[in-house]
Write a structure and sequence with these properties.
This protein has 386 residues and is an alpha+beta fold. The protein has nine helices and five strands, in the order αβββββαααααααα. It starts with a helix and ends with a helix.
Length: 386
């Protein structure tokens, strides 16, 4: 008789595990089906494009010659003849020929290979064989982007499981919110800083609530993120105002028809959010993990441990910010230096805005560490009182 309740409990637990495993099988089967369907669609979606698409079926190298420019930079120019078959439009199935000139450096051109799908422009005249001729506009890259996106999704699901799924949902929702916000700014006269502030609030709440749920840790992370981000923006704006923006070069924004200073500040605002949110969730998770291990831990011990954790992550996060912002300017730096621009002018033209963004994010990171620490302690004590 004593064993009977244990048998019932074991039976119930076994059924729960089977049910959970059953749902996992259904979910991952659905994901795999979506993967296969999306890959098949992207590799056969030419009919959904308005522009003409051709698939390369033959390439022939005609000539290749070394060249040297006035600055003694060596390169190689090549010419290839390309035969392709049209995949959509009224001329679908017909052959089309191109002449492609490309350099070994590949700065503004590239070599094409069999299997590449290209956006093309069809000329009115034909060649001597009656086949179509045209010019190459761009490469169809959506299939490569899709593969990389699925690798990212699978990595999140395998490593993060449930939280990985919510991270994907959070990313999609945040992307839609940002797209709507930018479209709203373009179509209206609303202030972009105000729109960015609303986006920061939505990004923070959506991301942290979806990943961590409704609990004290999430509340602490949300509060710390918002305070750290807004203080970072205020300090950055104050410094720019006091220095009259000396040293900032806005040449990369010269084609904008909107106030470029406002757009730069909005980008600064949203850019700092990522680093600040990372620091805040790391700090709050660590503080709550310490509390869950020992609910009698003192506030002083939490402060001491929290500052040690903050010192460890402070250097790495600021370095990450620097690398993330600077890496996008490497091609332009090389281009300027290869064309004999002075080093100082090259760095000033290409890195002033990136360094300003990195410094603004760094300020947010440093300030968020104590903010997250004391915010976490406040919510921990609140949880203790309950």
């Amino acid at each position: 008789m004593i064993r009977f309740p244990f048998l019932i409990g074991g039976f119930i637990l076994q059924n729960i595990l089977k049910k959970k495993s059953y749902y996992n099988i259904i979910f991952y089967t659905f994901v795999v089906i979506c993967f296969i369907a999306s890959v098949y669609f992207v590799y056969h979606n030419e009919a959904f494009y308005d522009r003409s698409i051709a698939e390369v079926i033959k390439t022939e190298l005609k000539e290749s010659n070394p060249v040297t420019d006035m600055y003694e930079n060596e390169d190689r120019l090549s010419t290839q003849f390309i035969t392709a078959v049209l995949k959509n439009g009224e001329e679908k199935g017909k052959l089309i020929h191109f002449t492609n000139e490309y350099s070994a450096s590949g700065a503004y051109d590239q070599e094409y290979h069999v299997g590449n799908k290209l956006f093309v422009s069809i000329k009115a005249n034909t060649d001597k064989n009656g086949d179509l001729t045209g010019t190459i506009l761009d490469v169809k890259r959506d299939q490569f982007i899709l593969i990389v996106a699925w690798i990212f999704i699978f990595a999140l699901l395998i490593v993060g499981k449930r939280q990985g799924l919510f991270s994907i949902i959070s990313l999609i929702v945040n992307s839609l919110v940002l797209s709507f916000a930018l479209d709203l700014y373009v179509q209206s006269n609303l202030n972009l800083i105000f729109i960015s502030g609303v986006c920061v609030l939505l990004f923070t709440v959506i991301s942290l609530l979806l990943i961590n749920g409704l609990n004290e840790k999430t509340y602490a992370a949300v509060v710390a993120t918002l305070i750290g981000t807004f203080i970072s923006l205020l300090i950055s704006a104050l410094v720019l105002w006091m220095t009259n923006e000396n040293g900032l070069r806005y040449e990369e924004m010269q084609f904008l028809t909107r106030p470029y200073r406002v757009i730069f500040m909005a980008g600064l605002f949203i850019g700092a959010l990522g680093a600040v949110m990372d620091v805040s969730i790391t700090m709050t998770s660590s503080m709550f993990a310490l509390f869950e291990q020992n609910e009698n831990i003192s506030d002083q011990a939490l402060k001491s441990s929290g500052m040690d954790i903050g010192k460890d992550i402070m250097g790495t996060i600021t370095s990450i910010l620097f690398f993330v912002y600077i890496c996008g300017s490497i091609p332009m730096l090389i281009l300027y230096l290869k064309n004999s621009y002075p080093l100082g002018q090259t760095l000033s033209l290409n890195l002033s805005l990136e360094l300003a963004r990195a410094l603004a994010g760094g300020i947010g990171v440093v300030l968020t560490i104590p903010i997250s620490l004391y915010t976490s302690i406040f919510f921990i004590n609140r949880k203790r009182a309950k």
